[in-house]
Specification:
Layout: H1 47-60, E1 64-75, E2 80-93, E3 96-108, E4 114-122, E5 126-131, E6 136-141, H2 156-160, E7 179-184, E8 194-201, E9 211-219, E10 225-232, E11 237-247, E12 265-270
Parallel strand pairs: 6-12
Antiparallel strand pairs: 1-2, 1-11, 2-3, 3-4, 4-5, 5-6, 7-8, 8-9, 9-10, 10-11
Length: 275
């Protein structure tokens, strides 16, 4: 499950002493009401805060999302890497969100790419994994239905981010206590027309035992992530890239219903109380 999933950030606008605080997702600043207040000049928003505010605004507008994905897992110490390709689908509904991730090919080191199909479905409560090579199904309950807010539900990206880093799709208001976020200058290897955010894991973060930092590239057109690279405490690197994303275009809900081929067996099913 380590190749599947994630989180993002915070945003803050600070003003000089005596000025009213502004919400980080707004671009307005307080204007002095008289000449006597002219000494109270608003501090300019830092570039990283501008990126986070726009990212936060875009993330909250997502109703559907779909894109081709490229997932690269690297182990530099062993000079080994695994490349997988597939597609991701996401839909946010009242009181529920749905997620599907398909992997279709696998390429190990210098070997030719081969067909290798795995499908992951999350329906708000259960995560279902279908392995077409082993012809088996595994199901894991991730949420207690009694704990779900009837109006808000459980966001699939939010939940998955507790296990694996797919960041930037649920807003930026939850990571202030987990990450130090900075804006990195682009270089020759950076994706074009993107802002590069680096999220360093804080010493007291709940992710401190798993991750060192996450690099996230945000497209300046849609202000959503197009690529991320996670550096783990075990000297592994996981890269995830989103190709030609489509935002808020219709998705048939049947896409999110697992379709188990005939002859596949249920190899494992773990309710939450047994995990």
């Amino acid at each position: 499950m380590r190749m599947l999933i994630t989180v993002l950030f915070l945003t803050n606008l600070c003003f000089a002493e005596g000025c009213a605080a502004a919400n980080a997702t707004e671009e307005k600043v307080t204007v002095p009401s008289s000449a006597e207040d002219s000494k109270c000049e608003p501090i300019k928003v830092k570039p990283v805060d501008e990126v986070l505010a726009k990212l936060n605004e875009s993330a909250k507008k997502i109703k559907t999302y779909q894109a081709d994905i490229i997932h690269l897992s690297r182990q530099p110490l062993f000079e080994s890497q695994t490349l997988r390709t597939g597609r991701i689908y996401y839909q946010r509904l009242p009181g529920q969100s749905l997620l599907r991730v398909d992997f279709n090919t696998l390429k190990q080191d210098d070997q030719p790419a081969e067909k290798y199909i795995e499908q992951f479905y999350f329906d708000g409560v259960w995560l279902t994994r279908i392995d077409f090579q082993l012809k088996e199904v595994k199901r894991y309950q991730l949420v207690d239905p009694n704990d779900i807010d009837a109006e808000k539900g459980v966001d699939a990206f939010d939940l998955i981010s507790e296990h694996l880093p797919v960041v930037g799709f649920t807003g930026t208001d939850k990571l202030k206590k987990e990450f130090d976020i900075t804006l990195i200058e682009p270089n020759q290897t950076s994706p074009a027309n993107c802002a590069h955010l680096r999220m360093g894991v804080k010493a007291d973060s709940k992710f401190k035992d798993d991750w060192e930092h996450i690099d996230c590239w945000v497209a300046k057109k849609q202000y959503l992530p197009v690529k991320m690279a996670t550096y783990t405490t075990e000297d592994e690197i996981y890269e995830l890239e989103f190709i030609e994303p489509k935002v808020n275009e219709p998705i048939d809900k049947s896409i999110f219903a697992p379709k188990v081929p005939e002859g596949f067996v249920l190899a494992e099913e773990k309710p939450l109380k047994k995990r």
